[in-house]
Amino acid sequence: MAHHRPRRSLGQNFLVDGNLQRKIVEAMRLEPGDQVLEIGPGKGALTQHLAGRCAALFLVELDRDLARVLGEEVGGVDGVRVLNQDILRLRLADLTDRVGDLKVVGNIPYNITTPILFHLLGRPRPLEIVLMVQKEVGERVLASPGTPEFGALTVGVRSVARVERVLRVPASAFRPVPAVDSVVLRIRPTRPEPLSEGEEAAVRNLTRMAFQMRRKQFQAILRGHPDARLSHEQVQKVEVATGFDLKRRPETFSPEDFVTLSRTLESLA
Length: 269
What we know:
- The protein folds into 2 domains: 8-189, 3-Layer(aba) Sandwich (Rossmann fold); 197-268, Orthogonal Bundle (Helicase, Ruva Protein, domain 3), CATH 1.10.8.
- It has helices at 18-26, 47-50, 64-74, 113-120, 135-142, 152-158, 197-212, 218-224, 232-242, 255-268, and strands at residues 14-15, 35-39, 56-60, 80-83, 102-107, 128-134, 161-169, 174-175, 182-189.
- It is 35% helix and 18% strand.
- It starts with 13 loop residues before the first strand and ends with a helix.
- The longest helix has 16 residues, at 197-212.
């Protein structure tokens, strides 16, 4: 691809390590009939290893110049479609009627990692998401209860999906070189859906409340947060029903515990 000056406003850092490019694509375990969405293909670092290897390849690139050049270089490959769009404004169901079979990959801008993650985990959900994210974000998604990294992002992702670390990627693998290292995560939404849409919304609300006041005991949050306002007696009922010690802080509860707490609160409402 012709020279392109990276745009800081779009968080552009291009992966130039060919070995890592291949490893990321290999992690997707592509089959000839697969449909793939690549977010932010940029100069085509991953695209060059994807084009022609799957039934459909959707390239969503916000940068108009890069999208134009991608169209010129790979737009003629069978099954490839280049879209100059913002991924956060794109519904996966508008790309394909097989969203549940879709595989997503991308080296995404660090400054919008969390919005992209939750956008992709909206319904309907793809089969698999392989994303390069900032190392610290990856640690938060993978965090264990009781660690400083554990928080709302951990619960939000892992209450509906399984996550594993695929690769560690040093800053030196990019141009321009970012200030941080990266990791590649594989996120597989749980099938069948573990929660109803109403239950997911309730878990999100509880998680938001809990981590807005994360230094407090859970019982204090349930009594004191303006969106909860439980009485002492109601908190006791929650403790009895769940068997949880609500004197603990939110970060000591697992994603599964948050689901249990949320369901219990809904049943007592």
